[in-house]
């Protein structure tokens, strides 16, 4: 850790009954950057969350990945303010089937795109909508 309110970094790792919890927190003051990573394992299931934020209204990124009974759910959200870009990706796997959805928007009335891809029993269906 550095004082003067500039940088704080913390890593915590705990093990209990074969379960692991790890947390990393990095912060820089002056309202600029906050990063947090949380990884937890319990009974062979993993939950991971990453949050990155930069202030001045510019960037927010969040990634959440969860595994439970061999199924994976992942969500990524990226936003840049000033009304310019929003991107969201959601990917889910269940029983070997994958569902993925991507939404991209740029403001100023210029671009909106949405892609939805579904996989079921080895077949893929993809749909893209541009407005």
Question: What do you see in this structure?
Answer:
This protein has 131 residues and is mostly beta strands. It has 2 domains: 1-56; 70-131. Helix content is 0%, strand content 75%. The chain has no helices and 10 strands. A 10-stranded antiparallel sheet has the order 1-2-3-4-5-6-7-8-9-10, with no helix packed on it. It is flat. The model has no long low-confidence stretch (mean pLDDT 56). Residues 1-131 are annotated as: Disordered.
Question: Which key phrases capture this entry?
Answer:
131 residues, mainly beta, ten-stranded antiparallel β-sheet, 10 strands, 0% helix
Average pLDDT, rounded to a whole number, is 56
Proportion of residues in β-strands? over 45%
Low-confidence stretches: none
Overall shape: flat
Element string (H = helix, E = strand): EEEEEEEEEE
User: What portion of residues is helical?
Assistant: under 10%
Rg to the nearest angstrom? 18 Å
Number of strands: 10
Number of domains: 2
- Number of helices in the DSSP assignment: 0
Region (Disordered): 1-131
Topology diagram in text:
Layout (H helix, E strand, L loop, with lengths): L6 E10 L2 E10 L4 E10 L2 E10 L4 E10 L2 E10 L4 E10 L2 E10 L4 E10 L2 E8 L1
Antiparallel strand pairs: 1-2, 2-3, 3-4, 4-5, 5-6, 6-7, 7-8, 8-9, 9-10
